[in-house]
Design goal:
The protein is α+β, with helices and mostly antiparallel strands. Among the domains are: 64 residues; 150 residues, Heat Shock Protein 90, CATH 3.30.565.10. Helix content is 54%, strand content 20%. A five-stranded antiparallel beta sheet has the order 2-1-5-4-3, sandwiched between helices. A five-stranded mixed beta sheet has the order 7-9-10-12-11, with helices on one face. β9 and β10 form a beta hairpin. α1 runs antiparallel to α3 and α5 packs parallel to α6.
């Protein structure tokens, strides 16, 4: 398979998408680092608290001489010889009030001491002929947590940078085949649309010549003249569809214009009326209110045509198109008197959703289920919607509603 050559705009889009994915990967890694770091700090803090409690309990029960206190432990012992205090204890230690209360109750007294803005837990316990008070220096614990925070910050920052860079590279590698496939698809549509314009131009020219000859014929054939005029209009509509395909393939924004949706619907109704009447189906148009909206004319024409074509395919005797205007939207309601929507839960607006393969009249027309999917795309591109509505008049049939915002 030949590898597609990307344009500068497509390369810019690919780079931008890759950067966004890389940033998203980095954000996910950052969130993971924060969760892991918080968990580690909580576990370490609880472990330090447990170790502090064990140290305090061991000190007040097993030590009777302040010189035996291990490093980082502040100790004070009150016995018959008086009060002995270890070295390098902070201000406020020992707490004499706690010593008196423990001696009076013969049990344990827990208090706290503020040391340079840090709360230190103090345990005072009376046993036999002495009262022992102990506290643990929090400095080493704080230093350990600070070293842990620095390590987590450095490792997390490095991980985020590496993850972001790897995300950009992997995203670009993963997205490039998709971008190339979409590029080739757009180019195929553009080439096909461009090539079809030449025979369509010839067809339009011949249709116009035929109409002129019929106009000049004597005696005039009104039916043939009407059919020729319809043929000219249909070729013009097909040319507009090809232009719309080229615009879609070019992937550029299209300026919207103010359009009377009811007038457009009237043109579509007239273009399908002859084919519908040949099948014994009457097509009626109803208009309620002002129906002007900012739309892409070719897209809306394709959507209304697809809705009407679907209704004519399913109708028994009649199709009604009603265009309604509200302060915010213009709504196109297409109703037929056919069997209604299938009860199998299939989404009628999904591609290839049609369960029919050929018309039952033997014409051999194959149904692919793309018309209503096209309507859904047009509605989404306009910021509107298309949906099915259950008729509430009890007459059956299917009702499809296309809503288009008046303004972009």
């Amino acid at each position: 398979m030949t590898r597609a050559v990307l344009t500068d705009a497509e390369r810019t889009l690919l780079r931008g998408t890759s950067r966004r994915l890389g940033l998203q990967v980095a954000a996910v890694v950052l969130a993971c680092v924060l969760v892991v770091g918080t968990t580690v700090l909580v576990v370490v803090s609880r472990s330090q608290s447990a170790a502090t409690e064990r140290t305090l309990a061991s000190a007040v029960t097993s030590l009777d001489d302040v010189d035996d206190a291990p490093d980082g432990t502040w100790l004070a012992v009150a016995d018959a010889r008086g009060l002995s205090v270890g070295q390098d204890v902070p201000d406020g230690f020992p707490q004499t009030d706690a010593l008196r209360r423990a001696a009076a109750t013969g049990g344990e007294v827990r208090t706290t001491l503020d040391v340079e803005g840090t709360t230190v837990h103090v345990l005072t316990s009376a046993s036999r002929d002495r009262v022992t008070q102990a506290a643990v220096d929090p400095g080493p614990w704080h230093e350990e947590r600070e070293r842990l925070l620095v390590a987590l910050a450095l490792a997390g920052s490095l991980g985020i940078v590496l993850a972001g860079g790897a995300g950009v590279l992997l995203a670009r590698r993963a997205l490039r085949p998709t971008v190339e496939a979409l590029t080739m698809q757009r180019r195929f549509v553009a080439d096909a649309g461009h090539e079809l314009r030449t025979p369509l131009t010839l067809l339009s020219t011949r249709a116009q010549l035929l109409r002129r000859r019929l106009d000049a014929a004597d005696p005039p054939d009104d039916r043939a003249r009407a059919d020729a005029a319809g043929l000219v209009a249909d070729t013009a509509a097909l040319g507009a569809v090809l232009d719309d395909m080229l615009v879609a393939a070019d992937n550029r924004s299209v300026d919207r214009v103010r359009l009377d949706v009811a007038a457009l619907a009237s043109e579509v109704v007239e273009s399908v009326r002859a084919a519908a009447e040949a099948r014994g189906i009457a097509v009626a148009l109803e208009v309620d209110g002002s129906t002007g909206a900012d739309v892409v004319p070719t897209g809306v024409r394709r959507a209304v045509t697809a809705l009407l074509d679907n209704a004519v395919d399913h109708a028994a005797t009649r199709v009604t198109v009603r265009v309604e205007g509200t302060p915010d939207d213009v709504t196109v309601r297409v109703r037929d008197d056919g069997p209604g929507l299938p009860a199998d839960g299939r989404d009628p607006f999904a591609r290839f959703a049609s369960g029919r393969r050929h018309d039952g009249d033997g014409a051999g027309r194959r149904h692919y289920g793309l018309g209503l999917a096209l309507v859904a795309d047009v509605a989404a591109n306009h910021g509107g919607e298309v949906r099915t509505v259950e008729p509430d008049d009890g007459r059956g049939g299917a009702l499809l509603v296309l809503r288009l915002p008046r303004r972009r």
